[in-house]
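Hi team,

Filling in the usual template for the complex we talked about on Friday. All components are listed, including any nucleic acid strands or ligand strings, so the model treats them as one assembly.

SUBMITTER: L.P.
PURPOSE: interface mapping
COMPONENTS: two
RESIDUES: 226
SEQUENCES:
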Amino acid sequence: GAGVSQSPSNKVTEKGKDVELRCDPISGHTALYWYRQSLGQGLEFLIYFQGNSAPDKSGLPSDRFSAERTGGSVSTLTIQRTQQEDSAVYLCASSLRESSYEQYFGPGTRLTVT
Amino acid sequence: GQQLNQSPQSMFIQEGEDVSMNCTSSSIFNTWLWYKQDPGEGPVLLIALYKAGELTSNGRLTAQFGITRKDSFLNISASIPSDVGIYFCAGQLSGGYQKVTFGTGTKLQVIP
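RESULT (copied from the run log):
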């Protein structure tokens, strides 16, 4: 079946521009997570959505980062006024329910800020 | 906050050799997870451990949940070229929703 998909796969943007990254989770998965992976680093938690509950935004590094999840499905991560240190791979994952450890990851979006 | 230290950071091995990598934490976890990430892909769950002392196998992979709840190791036996990738450990505090904390990864290269 279809897995988690993300778009675009690669994004190059100029410093100061805004970018939007999209995640389509697996159908029926109620939990959705965003992570950031910098070169040579582990996964840094950014934000978590579960059903209609308020999202856990505790991992967002600054107020330039925001995310939405519409209709309990597709999610968009927005980075405003991008900085070079925002360059990383942004990974989205979904799981069947909030208590499921088994997160299914998308292929990621590689963001390069020049 | 919790930190997970993985070692080694990278390793080169000959095909057929066994591999061992470990993960230590400054905090106690109730669940330990091991993921593998292939180039250009997201991580895929390999093994999940739920009890201190638990030893679990998945094919050529074996992982153990340390007695202290602060460490875990992953062994790969008889390595093959497709084992190449980055292996991440991850810890989770308890059931229900808890953020998963990921280690920094071990990059494995297998020489045919």
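MY TAKE: Residues 21 and 71 of chain A are 17 Å apart (CA to CA). Chain A has no helices and ten strands.

Thanks, L.
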